[in-house]
Design a protein that fits this description.
Length: 370
């Protein structure tokens, strides 16, 4: 194997593939990427029982061939090289990487024991690249990567519905939902994809015109700009029935400038420690934001708002959860309210918002006792 390739493109592709690799494994082959030089392309690929990822990069291939090397080491070295043409040369003992005066040699891992890459499933449809990337980023904060007892909470559900595609994530304390248009052109079923892998592949979609999606019963695939990610699905039937958590009626709605609210929450949040909450005391045309049950320091701020429904309304939130919900919204935000102890719905103050964020408030023990 011998080829020449631009450092910038190869480093970016190798770094993206390396994000699919686990931190450690008993078998070194499980941490390897397979380099395949053929025609005018270098393919960098990783495969495991859970996920597979590959990226095809334009290259000047002098001699075709393939080699398996440590994926993270390969990506780290490429990222540290200057933006010059990189020459890769492989033999029976290793792979040489040369860029200017920089020379590295990587040992080989066994290509015979390297798992075969699964084929991309049949394409179910296409979604606009920028909208897909934004939707995944918007729902990702509600993904729970920590609950080992419920691995399905670590997924993002993609559900096709005609010419619309709904993405949803929940950690049981909040539900984030975004709906985007797409063009179906094949069979598609609701699919629960590992959140971390989907977030990584979506980052590459922002600059692409479209994303190819394969939503099948066993695996799902995402293809964009020469990058392919194939994931074994999480059991979608075990995903919480988060749709039922949305209240059917609300007693009131408060509307305000989203930037002003977010900046104030961050400022007052400086007083909070541990699991302390931030309280919104809403009255007519203003909202007072203060730290809740903080004995060490006090602080509050007041911003303009519009409250429709009740004359006053008090509710408290985990500040990080609240800020996560405000992040994707521009201009004015609307918060639909029921009671101080039931979920509130955050969305843009427009008709039929494509993004919705349901969050469970923090209950004040004093109010709960009364």
């Amino acid at each position: 194997m011998k080829l020449q390739v631009e450092q910038t493109a190869l480093a970016e592709g190798a770094r993206w593939v390396a994000r699919h690799i686990p931190p450690s494994a008993a078998d070194p082959a499980a941490l390897a990427v397979l380099l395949t030089a053929d025609g005018e392309t270098l393919t960098v690929a990783y495969s495991s029982a859970e996920v597979a990822a590959s990226v095809a990069i334009d290259a000047h291939v002098i001699a075709a061939g393939r080699a398996a090397v440590s994926g993270k080491v390969f990506a780290d070295i490429l990222g540290a090289l200057p933006p010059l043409q990189v020459e890769l040369t492989g033999d029976d003992n290793g792979v040489d990487m040369i860029a200017g005066s920089n020379t590295f040699r990587l040992g080989l891992l066994d290509t015979n024991s390297y798992p075969s890459l699964p084929p991309m499933p049949a394409i179910s449809g296409q979604a606009p690249g920028d909208l897909f990337a934004t939707a995944v980023a918007n729902v990702a904060p509600a993904v729970d990567y920590q609950t080992a007892a419920m691995p399905e909470l670590g997924g993002i559900r993609i559900r096709p519905d005609g010419d619309r595609l709904q993405l949803m994530a929940t950690d049981r304390y909040r539900v984030a939902v975004q709906t985007i248009p797409w063009q179906p052109n094949g069979d598609a079923v609701p699919a629960l994809l590992p959140g971390r892998a989907l977030t990584d592949v979506a980052k590459a979609a922002g600059g692409a015109d479209s994303v190819d999606l394969a939503l099948t019963a066993g695996t799902a695939g995402v293809h964009v700009d020469g990058r392919t990610s194939i994931s074994r699905l999480l059991p979608v039937d075990k995903f919480p029935n988060a749709d039922a958590a949305f209240p059917k009626e609300y007693t009131g709605v408060v509307t305000c400038d989203v930037d002003e609210l977010a900046e104030t929450v961050r400022r007052i949040g400086l007083l909070l420690e541990g699991e302390q909450a931030i309280e919104l005391a809403i009255s007519g045309d203003h909202m007072t934001i203060q730290a809740m049950r903080n004995t060490k320091a006090t602080g509050k701020a007041r911003i303009a708002c519009r409250l429709e429904g009740p004359d006053t309304f008090d509710i408290a939130f985990n500040p990080r959860y609240l800020l996560d919900g405000l992040g994707p919204i521009d201009d004015e935000v609307a918060i639909n309210l029921t009671t101080y102890s039931k979920p509130a719905l955050i969305h843009a103050a427009v008709n039929n918002p494509s993004y919705q964020y349901l969050v469970v408030p923090v209950r004040d023990p004093a109010k709960a006792a009364s």
